[in-house]
Amino acid sequence: MRTYKIAALFFFVLLSASSICHGQTNVKRAVVTITGQVHKTLVLNELELNTFRQTQVLRRDKEGHKHRYSGVLLLDLLQKAEINSVHGPGSKNLNRYILVEASDGYQVIFTLAELDENYSSNRIILANSRDGEALPANEGPFRVIVQDGKKPARCIRQVTNIAVRIVDSKF
């Protein structure tokens, strides 16, 4: 019986070493998914998010300390998922919104018009760094940052999903 335990342990050690040497670790990367009314669903990890054009946003925390967040404009991510941006006052996209969900179930809604510079001067990003460092575990790895929002409640932490929706006008 002891021989089997030693053999099993030896096999496990060899398998683990082989996986590490070949870059096949079982480390699960956090992802954010963009779903809903898009032509293609996106599943992005932190490395993939860094391939997009980066935008810097300054924002104060609850204690009044100013931080520089870096990430990607939400509208850029939606365009990559092949949703049309909002253009012009007669745009059919004015009835669309995104529902941002966090790992703890917290949810926040943004209209597409809020994300578009033709309608709003606020920059809203999906951030993955603060002051040049990865976001702290209690905030990240992904966090929505609203540049000039008066309250921090919409700067949702630990984002896992962004769903594009259309308002149901059948009330």
UniProtKB/TrEMBL annotation:
Pfam families reported in the protein's UniProt record: Oxidored_molyb (PF00174)
Keywords, comma-separated and alphabetical: Signal
Annotated signal sequence range: 1-23
Cytoplasm found in the keyword field: no
Tree of life domain: Bacteria
Domain Oxidoreductase molybdopterin-binding: 64-164
InterPro entries reported for this sequence: OxRdtase_Mopterin-bd_dom, OxRdtase_Mopterin-bd_sf
The protein, known as: Oxidoreductase molybdopterin binding domain-containing protein
